[in-house]
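Hey, sorry to bother you again with one of my protein questions. There's a protein on my desk that I can't quite get my head around. No rush at all, and the record is pasted right below.
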Amino acid sequence: MATWRRDGRLSGPQRLCCAGLAGALSLSLTAPLELLTVLAQVGSRHCGRGLLGAGRGLCRTEGVRALWKGNLTACLRLCPYSALQLAASRRLVILFTDELGHISHWRAIIAGSLAGMVATVVTYPTDVIKTRLIVQNRLEPSYEGILHAFYKIYHQEGLLALYRGVTPAILGAVPFSVGSFFVYINLDKIWREPIVCFTPLQNFINGCVAAAVAQTLSFPFETVKRKMQAQSPCLPHCGTVDAHFTGMADCFRQTVKNRGVLGLWSGLTPSLLKIVPYFGVMFSTFEFCKRVCLYRNGYIESPLSYKLTPGVDQSLLPQELRELKRLRRENFEPRKSALEN
């Protein structure tokens, strides 16, 4: 069993800000690997040269900035996606929590997966735009930016084009959840100690392993999703997709026919390579931002450590602590005036 907990010393906006900054920085630093993953999934001509060859070829033809195509869209999508996922997750966790305030690991994973599905569907058009910006040639762009891409896709291909590939995106959440659940139920056997005794390093390794297993299992759905997002009669070479298809099932068939079964896992290598730096940067940035917020709220002495401020009740909420400090100041000032008189 696990207990659903969050640090009450941070306000809602502070938690969202910490998560947003951590996510944006980790996305930006791993953007080249994400771009190579998408190009390999779509079947771009650049990816026939291997990982390093694809990166060098792209830099040679479109410039170094091409490695960050679509990254701004991914960063802007992060805040609404995180807010929606957090709101949905809270409601689902409350629904799955027992009367003692505990929730089992599999229920927590199901709640997280369902919350992710909600956030994915609502913000899906931005993911389509990100893919289109990645597959286009930066020097001869079909889309001049995020808003232009949204406008052009909507007017040329219709509203449904902004949701092309949403079905495999939702279906891919099933093997993703199964993979995560399989890892987490075996953690105590792998480490040979209870989950509650895990160190931060062990939890970081656990997260990376769970992400790697889950991504590997759900990757075929991710590949089909990217191909469906990229394919468009309005783009040069139909969006550089290596197979032409009429729907999700046909996309699976054509991919296997043209590239074999392993073609469904094209781009898995850069996707796995980005896991450790992505989570490493995200966790370290989040923890630093959290310390800054705790310092500003008055719970710790310095943003460089977690040393608690003496005399401060750590169970108080931020607004309660501020109110307590205000009352102390108000009581102190009359006494000071009386002593001076």
About this structure: The first helix runs from residue 12 to 29. The chain has one domain: 31-273. The radius of gyration is 24 Å. The mean pLDDT is 87.
